[in-house]
Write a structure and sequence with these properties.
Structural class: alpha+beta
Number of strands: 17
CATH superfamily of the largest domain: Pseudouridine synthase I, catalytic domain, N-terminal subdomain
CATH architecture of the largest domain: 2-Layer Sandwich
Bound molecules: uracil
Shape: elongated
Strand content: 25-35%
Distance between the termini: 17 Å
Oligomer: single chain
Order of helices and strands: EHHEEEEEEHEEHEHEEEEHEEEH
CATH topology of the largest domain: Alpha-Beta Plaits
Number of helices: 7
Helix content: 10-25%
Radius of gyration: 21 Å
Length: 245
């Protein structure tokens, strides 16, 4: 999938006018793409196309794609009215207005993507396109095989039944009566992993997202980040839209 977006959306994003008003501006013949007047509303433009409104080039941000190893006690938001550290503040030195793709809980650590590309974010978050997400959950208690099977077949939550998941025990500690379970899910519902364990009678004490689609944290430590390569971005979009692992 290419990173093309509708002209009126690009204009709105650049702050020219609302999407509706941008459509009017296009129809009035005031917009040029690569030097040619465009009046067609469906026109799509990519990051390298030059868009001018009244002969003034519009400011377009470079698309950015960041993988952050989200540390504990950070909020997956651009700002927080309670003054808590945000994931955006973890990513220093990026000028563009990036925001998290989805959310990890305040106390959850692990792989979180940030971007300023609305299309990328939309595709990854869309219920139809969800890529598998692998979580490592520390559990109070040791689930039985039968309970894990319930998790894998799907449990009923407020939003509906979770789709088939994979659950396996990585380690157990009988003295402390605790275990570590790897759970792979496809949706991205709020607190989903915690609620799935709750549904089979267990509490999650720690949670980390280890993988998102084919991406893993690699050598990153908590609080560290890196930019995705163009190849990774394309592969992630392809994986999301094909629905394959
Ligand atoms: N599921 C949760 O319960 N919390 C997260 O942060 C992510 C998935």
């Amino acid at each position: 999938m290419s990173h093309q977006e509708r002209l009126q959306k690009v204009m709105a994003h650049a702050g020219v006018a609302s999407r509706r008003h941008s459509e009017k501006i296009i129809q009035e013949g005031r917009v040029k793409v690569n030097g040619q007047v465009v009046t067609e509303l469906g026109t799509r433009v990519g990051p390298n196309d030059l868009v001018e409104v009244d002969d003034v080039p519009i400011y377009r941000e470079e698309p950015r794609y960041i993988m952050l190893y989200k540390p504990r006690n950070t909020i997956s938001a651009v700002s927080d009215d309670r003054g808590r550290d945000t994931v955006v503040e973890c990513v220093k030195g990026i000028e563009e207005r990036i925001y998290p793709v989805g959310r990890l809980d305040f106390d959850t650590t692990g792989l979180l993507l940030l971007t300023n590309d609305g299309n990328f974010s939309h595709v990854l978050m869309h219920p139809r396109y969800q890529v598998p997400k692998v979580y490592i959950a520390s559990i109070d208690g040791i689930p039985t095989q039968g309970e894990l099977t319930r998790l894998s077949r799907g449990v009923q939550l407020e939003e509906g039944k979770t789709s088939p998941a994979q659950a396996r025990i990585l380690s157990t500690n009988r003295q402390k009566n605790s275990s570590v379970v790897q759970l792979t899910i496809h949706e991205g519902w709020n607190h989903q992993v915690k609620r799935m364990f709750e549904a089979i009678g267990y509490k999650v004490s720690r949670l980390k997202r280890e993988r998102l689609g084919f991406l893993d944290l690699g050598r990153l430590n908590p609080g560290q980040w890196r930019e995705l390569t163009a190849f990774e971005v394309d592969k992630l979009l392809a994986q999301a839209t094909s629905g394959k692992d």
